[in-house]
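Researcher: Here's a chain I'd like modeled. Treat it as a single chain, no partners, no ligands.
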Amino acid sequence: MQIRNDMQTLAEAGERWQKVAASRMPGRPKARDFIDLMFDDFIELKGDRQYGDDGAVVAGIAYLDNMPVTVIGQHKGRNFAESMDAHFGMPHPEGYRKSLRLMREAEKFRRPVVCIIDTPGAYPGIDAEARGQGAAIAANLLELSHLKTPVIGIIIGEGGSGGALALAMGDHLIMLENTYFSVISPEGCASILWKDTSLAPRAAESLKPTAADLKKMGIADSIIKEPQNLTNENMGRVVRELRRQVYRVAHKLMLLTPEELIERRWKRYSSMAGQGA
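Model: Modeled as a single isolated chain. Structure tokens:
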């Protein structure tokens, strides 16, 4: 009976697992691709002022139409050399500290922060832990809870664990259609619960990590439809819609006082907790 139930669950998990797989496609546009097309006059800023720079986090200042913004993107790399430098999109603590530095700078100059999220999770190596990985993520979450400038998150691929949450806990969350956002990857979940990563499709069904799931739970605010196979060649419509939504939301949030913005953010997350999301 249990085997039959497991097989049924795996069959039902197909669509969610396909979304997870699509978010990881090698040819899918990366953070730098979105930054290049979405923003004007991007100036990259590097370093955490403590240890060094992290290739997994691309950050700087730019214009969205005529609006100055701070942009922070998790970058997986567009070729092998870039991917190695970016640790395949898994930031080290200096990447999160760089993000924190730019968030505080954005607050000082009252610029909206746009976070482009695409990571399977924070880098899990012993060197990252030795340099304070957990503390760096926690510091970002604390800062985001009371940052006095708008924060808009865009999930363009994977949104895995605290590594993604450290940039996603803002005022508005946009997800592309074939993306996911979850406390853990389906493989990690399957490994912990059943000691078998081949059951990742079953875990995806339980996690409900897709854009449609999160919109239904009130975590994602909007979903942007994608072409069947999103690539650099056909991402134009997606970028145009992102520009339109981000500009509209940022302009609306900028009309709030810092106190109103923080109160709105607290109510947003209190509401999610109240729903058991």
